[in-house]
Amino acid sequence: MTEVYLRRLSRWQAEQQRAAVADVHVTAYRGAAGAEYRDRQGFLDRFEQHVQRLGFDMMVADAGGLVGCAYGFRVERTGEWWSDFRGELPTDIEELTASGRTFLLAELMVLPAHRRHGVATLMGERLLARLETDLVVAAVDLERPDDGKDGEDGARGGRPANAAQETVRSWGWSKLGLLAPHSPSAVREVWIRRPLR
User: Fold this and answer.
1) Residue 166 contacts residue 189 (beta carbons within 8 Å)
2) Looking at 135-173, which runs of residues are DSSP E strands?
3) In angstroms, rounded to a whole number, what is the distance separating the alpha carbons of residues 157 and 120?
4) Helix count (H) and strand count (E) of the chain?
5) φ, ψ for residue 159 (rounded to 5)?
6) Per-residue pLDDT tens digits for 139-183
7) What is the four-CA torsion angle of 115, 67, 191, 104, rounded to 10 degrees?
């Protein structure tokens, strides 16, 4: 495998690289569940909004062109992000969100040829290393078990659902619960990590 270099992008650099990031997104999620949510223009529209969010931070993996990307931002203090949470949100999570010290890992994607080489882990570690937050959250898309499909997962790089779960679990994250699905075929699990101090 070609050597991969990681670099952090400023908000301005991220906006300048949006076409290349969209290319990675489309390739990483090709054939995954919820494709209607993951079309190129839909991603570009979301990315344009995400880049403007408070605390936006982004890490990319480059091997003569982008091969992966991880980015996120601060969850709004209003708690709006949690509106689709199923069940009762724990009080400490509400408090951390209201304090402005919760970061959302919004995207983590790696091209198929560069998966299983630690690229996602390195990007995730570097992105989260300098955060001054008390909680990091991510939503992992899982196909419904009764949909008759083979379990491929579009979230977090288009890997099988159990691989996405295994990845966040291996990072020391814990499953918090479920969010209402964004498409008829997908359910989202919420995973959290409290940074080590």
Assistant:
1) no
2) 135-143
3) 9
4) 6, 7
5) -85, 165
6) 887 754 433 333 333 333 444 444 667 778 888 899 999 987 766
7) 170
Tokens of 33: 């569940």
**Amino acid identity, position 122:** L
59 closest CA partner among 2, 15, 116, 125: 125
Q: Residue 130 is which amino acid?
A: R
For residue 74, what are its two tokens? 């601060």
Q: pLDDT of 100-119, one tens digit each?
A: 999 999 998 888 878 888 88
Q: What is the dihedral of CA 85, 91, 97, 99, to 10 degrees?
A: 170
Phi then psi for 149, rounded to 5 degrees? -100, 175
At 184, list the tokens: 């008829």
Query: Residue 160 corresponds to which tokens in the numbers above?
Result: 């099988």
